[in-house]
Amino acid sequence: MGDLEGKVALVSGGSKGMGEAIARLFAREGARVVLTARSEADARRVAESIGPSACGMALEVSNRSNWVRVIDAVSERWGRLDILVNSAGVSIGGSIEDTNEENWRLHMATNLDGVYYGCQTALPLMKSSGEPSSIINIASVIASRPMSSLMAYGASKTAMVAMTKSIALHCALNGYAIRANTIHPGGIETPMFEDALVQTGLPREQAYAMWCSAHPMGRIGKPEEVAQAALWLASDASSFTTGGEVTVDGGSAIRH
Ligand SMILES: NC(=O)c1ccc[n+]([C@@H]2O[C@H](COP(=O)([O-])OP(=O)(O)OC[C@H]3O[C@@H](n4cnc5c(N)ncnc54)[C@H](O)[C@@H]3O)[C@@H](O)[C@H]2O)c1
């Protein structure tokens, strides 16, 4: 029997990278998984490759009415939502001197508004079952270790962490059986990481080695390693953990 047997999970950004790895692991552990992506075709393709316990839906996270449509569909189909994973995100380089308004707004709309809309629209359904439920927001090591070249990204992730702690407090103080935590990955091998390598302007091997050296463990992580942390937070094994920050970063948050 899997750790998530009987639970219903929704994963944003589920057609790629960490979101996909999380959706796959959750389904293996017995959850019914609603995997969302901006493109319905992408979401469906990945869901079909997982099997009948997964379904794919279109969701632009920066659009509140998209969230309402998806949550309504989950409510109609299963009548409950036990796990919400906000994995969709964007990361585009830029310091305070070269971050234009468009870059700033894109980070805030996706990484912050998207998580706010997701948590707010999902909460009534998560609350209604009275069963232990879990919100998992994918932040970043950047939330505690700022980089001058990722100003807007870092700001959005740090704010997301503060928002998650506030949600955790609100739920605990009101007696809701809902926990909320953030995962703080370091460099993880996903399409977003590949983009970050390109953004350095260096040859790929050199950029890759540079990123590895920022991690005391000397390597980049795998999406499956993040998925294991998400599984722990999603399952009842983490029943006394809320408002927490789980690092999956090869020690990069504690580097000198
Ligand atoms: N890869 C890393 O090194 C790394 C490190 C720390 C944190 N993170 C965070 O982890 C999360 C997952 O990142 P990943 O590396 O798997 O990235 P990824 O690019 O592989 O996947 C992110 C997904 O989010 C989707 N997305 C982007 N904007 C969206 C929007 N407006 N609406 C709906 N979907 C949208 C993308 O299409 C993509 O499918 C992100 O929040 C990212 O910031 C990544």
Describe the structure.
It is a single chain. This protein is of the alpha/beta class and 256 residues long. The chain has two domains: 8-186 and 222-248, NAD(P)-binding Rossmann-like Domain (Rossmann fold), CATH 3.40.50; 189-220, no CATH class. 47% of the residues lie in helices and 14% in strands. It has eight helices and seven strands; from the N terminus they run βαβαβαβαβαβαααβ. A seven-stranded parallel β-sheet has the order 3-2-1-4-5-6-7, with helices on both faces. Helix 4 runs parallel beside helix 5. The chain is globular, with a radius of gyration of 17 Å. The relative contact order is 0.15. Nicotinamide-adenine-dinucleotide is lined by residues 13, 15-19, 37-38, 59-62, 87-91, 110, 114, 138, 140, 185, 187-188, 190-193. Keywords: Oxidoreductase, Plasmid. Residues 7-144 form the Ketoreductase domain.
Question: How is this fold's topology laid out?
Answer:
Blueprint: E1 8-11, H1 17-28, E2 32-37, H2 40-50, E3 54-58, H3 64-78, E4 83-86, H4 101-129, E5 133-138, H5 151-173, E6 178-185, H6 191-199, H7 204-213, H8 223-234, E7 245-248
Parallel strand pairs: 1-2, 1-4, 2-3, 4-5, 5-6, 6-7
Bound molecules: nicotinamide-adenine-dinucleotide.
Residues 13, 15-19, 37-38, 59-62, 87-91, 110, 114, 138, 140, 185, 187-188, 190-193 line the site of nicotinamide-adenine-dinucleotide.
Keywords: Oxidoreductase, Plasmid
GO molecular function, one term: oxidoreductase activity, acting on the CH-OH group of donors, NAD or NADP as acceptor
Enzyme class: oxidoreductase
